[in-house]
Design goal:
Strand content: over 45%
Helix content: under 10%
Number of helices: 0
Number of strands: 10
Order of helices and strands: EEEEEEEEEE
Shape: globular
Radius of gyration: 14 Å
Structural class: mainly beta
Strand order of the largest sheet: 3-4-5-6
Largest sheet: 4 strands, antiparallel
Distance between the termini: 26 Å
């Protein structure tokens, strides 16, 4: 179960229940408004930090926010041969670049 804690109140704010797989990673966006987490072997999920509300899900793996928080980059494919750029606000895929040898640097 992923949990969000209030620093101000020093208490648990909410839990994201139903998660049974170990987490691969979790990341906070640069604004601090949204966070992503990726359970093993599952799609990455984006949540609102303040409410814990699920916003959308992304395909691919090893997602990274851009420095201004407006885009999310990821790669997919068995060898990471496809780069995907998505809008961080909506999760809408903006660009897909296929044919790269290896995109593990994302």
């Amino acid at each position: 179960t992923a949990q969000a804690w209030s620093i101000k109140n020093k208490a648990l704010a909410y839990s994201l229940k139903g998660q049974t797989q170990p987490l691969n990673y979790s990341k906070l966006d640069p604004s601090g408004n949204n966070f992503m987490y990726s359970p093993s072997n599952e799609a990455t999920r984006i949540f609102d930090v303040g409410t814990g509300r699920f916003l959308y899900q992304l395909k691919g793996n090893k997602h990274r926010y851009s420095s201004d928080g407006t885009l999310i980059a990821s790669h997919s494919g068995s060898k990471g041969e496809t780069a995907i750029i998505s809008d961080a606000q909506s999760g809408r895929q903006l660009l897909e670049l296929k044919g790269s040898k290896q995109l593990n640097y994302i």
